[in-house]
Every structure is written in C-alpha cells, then in structure tokens.
Amino acid sequence: MASEPAPTDHxxxxxxxxxxxRCISPNFGPRSxxxxxDLIVVHSISLPPGQYGGPAIExxxxxxxxxxxxxxxxxxxxxxxxxxxxxxxxxxxxxxVDGLQRAWHAGPSAYRGRSNCNDDSIGVELEGLxxxxxxxxxxxxxxxxxxxxxxxxxxxxxxxxxxxxxxxKNDPGPGFDWALLRRRLGWPTASFPAG
Length: 195
Fold this sequence. Notes:
disordered N terminus, alpha/beta, Lysozyme-like, 195 residues, 18% helix
C-alpha cells in the first residue's frame, strides 16, 4: 500500500521549493555522509551595505558580481558564497541551492554541540542590515518557508548566524524579532536560541 503524500509534497521538487524564484548558484557541494538537515540558519545581507533592491546579492551568490561596480565590493573581491534562500524586503523569495545540497553560508560554525553547520543546515538570508529591523512581508515569507521546510526536512532548530558563529558574525542582529518568529511558528522554545 502506497504511503500518503506529505501535505507539502506539491511544494517541492527534491530540495527545490517551487514557490521560490530559482536563481542557481555554482557555490555548493554535497552534504557530509549521514548529515541530518535539522537546522535553519537565519542571516542578513545587503549589497552594498544598507542598500536594498539591487541585483548585487544575486550576482554575489552566482559569481557574476562586478567587483568594480562599487568601492565596497573590493573588500569582498573573489568571495564565493551562497545561501539556500534569500528573502527580499517585500517578501519575494529566491532559491540559489537545492536544499539537499550543502550551501556555503555559515563558514566556521558550531551549534548544538556540532561543528560545520553548513553540513546540516539550510541558510536563509534576509535582505537587511545587521542590527536593523526587517519588514513584515519578510517575516511572513520566513514563517511560511520555515513551516514548509519542517514538513520536508527534519528541522528541529532555527538560529541566527550570530548564534552559530558568535564573535565572528553578528547577523541578523538585535533588529530581528525572534519572539515574533516563535509566535508565528508555534515551535517549542528549545527550537530557538536561548534568550
């Protein structure tokens, strides 16, 4: 007897989330053998810092950024990074890496007694400047995405980049409303960073 499909099966093509605009990054690799995808890491990004809406984030994640287009880009010249998802200020969702693959978003990191968070996490970038606030449509999209990811993958935790790389990273920062995300998701307190 065939098993019943999960409620969100129609939203996924393997690790690709169909409601997102696909923008494929070359910056990914296989996950470590035995990795369990049980963590969502929330980041913030804007390029140049504090500027929103332009193509630079997509270009960075797809290795097409013109390093000479803005003086700030010289400080990140040659950087090869990616996240699985980007949520724009208006809530628009883009996906760069298949959720079954390892994106390059967390860098040196550790959480829940495990190192190398890229191995077992999905990275979600919010368009914004670390420490500042985010828009209501971004929380709407993030909560929906987290819920659907938890039905597709064995997600048990969500944390910020600041929690998996403390002292090295500060995003999304104090402007991110963790209490709001907890209320929206209704997940246990233990699923979120302490404090």
